[in-house]
Specification:
Blueprint: H1 3-22, H2 26-32, H3 34-49, H4 55-84, H5 89-99, H6 101-115, H7 125-153
Helix pairs in contact: 1-2, 2-4, 2-7, 3-4, 3-7, 4-5, 4-7, 5-7, 6-7
Length: about 160
Amino acid sequence: MRRHSFVSLFIALMFIITVLLFNNFRQPVVIWSIVPLALIGVSFGLLITGTPFTFIALLGFISLIGMILKNGIVLVDQINLELKEGKEPYHAIVDSAVSRVRPVSMAAITTILGLLPLLFDAFFSSMAVTVMFGLGFATILTLIVLPVVYILIYKIKYQPLS
């Protein structure tokens, strides 16, 4: 079996685990919708630093997928908690996004700062750039785009905030 087949198999396994975690299909789709968009941040980071996309960068991207999923799971889980408390769906999404800004941002910032020394390492620089820029961009996407995708997939109507 080829190496890319293993990667595809494990990504599919990760998706199945998120489906089992939420016991439905739509919420994992919402969470996973951020993963391809993170490539924008990765590409931008590699472009401005002039770093090539190496095998080590690919490993960094695979670990980045896990970090993106963790952030998405945190936000969607908070939305579920707000809905269980009886909040209107639109208000639950907005309140969840606002309340998760600090935890999601702090986790991303500590990871990004922790990778700073690897930027100057010849072997690991491509991985560091991939994770740092991908995670920075994906964090913004998680807090802004994920709630919008959730609203679109669940067809939630706008309600003015009071």
